[in-house]
Amino acid sequence: MVHGQAPMKSMIDTIFALSSGHGRSGVAVIRVSGPAVRFVLETMCGNIPIRRMARLCTIRDSGGEAIDRGLALFFEGPRSFTGEDMAELHVHGGKAVVQALLGSLAGLVGLRPAEAGEFARRAFENGKLDLTAVEGIADLIDSETEGQRRAALVQADGRLARTYEALRSRVVELRGLAEASVDFVDEGDVPASVTRQLVSGCEELAKELMSLKEGFQRGRLVRDGLVVVIAGKPNAGKSSLVNWLANRDIAIVSDEPGTTRDLLEARLDIAGVAVSVFDTAGLRDSAQSVEAEGIRRARELMERADLVIELVDSGSVQLLETGTTEDNYGDKYETTRWRIGSKADLVTGKTYGLSAISTKTGTGTSELLKRLEAFAVERAGFTGEALMTHERHREAVTMALSGIERCSRHLESDEVELAAEELRMAGDALGRLTGAIHTEDVLGQIFSSFCIGK
Ligand SMILES: Nc1nc2c(ncn2[C@@H]2O[C@H](COP(=O)(O)OP(=O)(O)OP(=O)(O)O)[C@@H](O)[C@H]2O)c(=O)[nH]1
Ligand SMILES: [Mg+2]
User: Fold this and answer.
1) What's the gap between Cα 40 and its chain centre?
2) 234 CB under 6 A from ligand 1?
């Protein structure tokens, strides 16, 4: 226990929760985990089904009254998700059915509703899942696009954990070597071969940690998605474009300049990549206070966007002649900017080298969509690698990397003892990633972000 956080309620309790989605559905799944699972099955289903075999039965409350007919499954610990005895009850997903079932479970001795993330937490405590897998499952549940799903699955099935564990065991090995050579220091000198081994070991580790860290930027984008801002002068046709991209009326379109004032977000799936497209207030200087605030927000978002599509009314020729079609700006965020002409149907002939679109006639829109797809895949498409996607991982890997770098410097000046200490800290940082080393704080943070029933 660290920092006096409340402990998770006793693991001896048997917990239950609705694990399928809330609201009306064909089937609802209620999970039960803990020592009283056999008792629950005997009481509610008459007997215990054969392990891992679905059994159709009448599910009854403790008074013997039928709640519903459904399927009961029994998973005997430790061969279950949580590692404990578990049951799954599949009933019709009506609100009253679920309520009645949860109500009668609550009435049984030794049972209580599960807390958020408690099933996953028990799985972790019982060595069924490591922390990266736990996060992977949470991401899988939250995934909205193919890219997000595939990246989450790589993490959920333990590939990232294996990478971290392999790195950690190499750090531990080097530390053993460094600690063993501390004795040589007393006797005179550390043999050159040992120092060489330590130095090259650190070099290799640093290289690999660095490349993991470099993958974070992409991993983050795969997981969180891209931010695309549609910007431009009032009346340029921004809201019309956002509505066209989203395929529904998200924003009000009118010929009055200054219609949009707030940031409006459309969450889209573009070629498997999660993309948030934002409609913004038209940029102009003469705006009144509310609109001016909208413009301030638009500019702020443009600074941290992955892509800004600047729409320029194709009628305003001067602008078309001066603008470049693509350029990057901003050093903190790699923002790409496209200038695109709007209302192409209103001009005939020239498009001045700009790709122009019309949301009215559809001119150029499929080209724009293709360009967007290519951009999304290039920036944030899932490539099959196990990439770091969580800030927690970036922090731990950064910590391990700086430990290794300090270790190398100590080795240069023959301070093996200090080098060994840095390796210890680097190893611990990597151990915290999988939860091999953990504190209540970190666990609390990870599991509480889960919903109940997970
Ligand atoms: N002919 C034509 N008119 C368009 C096109 N796109 C938008 N418009 C019209 O242009 C006007 C402004 O469109 P909006 O989409 O509201 O423009 P906006 O950039 O969001 O404007 P603000 O929110 O005021 O900054 C409306 O009258 C639209 O019907 C187009 O492709 N062709
Ligand atoms: Mg608008």
Assistant:
1) 35
2) yes
Q: Is the distance from the beta carbon of residue 255 to the nearest atom of ligand 1 less than 6 Å?
A: yes
Domains defined along the chain, listed by start: 14-129 (3.30.1360.120), 150-221+387-438 (1.20.120.430), 225-380 (3.40.50.300)
Distance from the alpha carbon of residue 254 to the mean position of ligand 1, in angstroms:
6
Condensed to tens digits (0 to 9), the pLDDT of residues 165-176 reads 999 999 999 999
- pTM of the predicted model over 0.90: no
Cβ atoms 69, 9 nearer than 8 A:
no
Q: How many Å is the maximal CA-CA distance in the chain?
A: 88
Concatenating the DSSP letter of every residue in 104-162 gives HHHTSTTEEEPPBTHHHHHHHHTTS--HHHHHHHHHHHH--SHHHHHHHHHHHTTHHHH
Q: In what order do the strands lie in the sheet with 264-270?
A: 264-270, 273-279, 226-232, 307-313, 335-342, 326-329
Residues in the chain, overall count:
454
Nearest ligand 1 atom to alpha carbon 279? 20
Ligand 1 contact via 314 beta carbon (within 6 Å): no
CB of 240 within 6 A of ligand 1: the answer is yes
Per residue in 184-221, pLDDT tens?
A: 666 666 677 888 999 999 999 999 999 999 999 999 99
310 near 341, Cβ under 8 Å? no
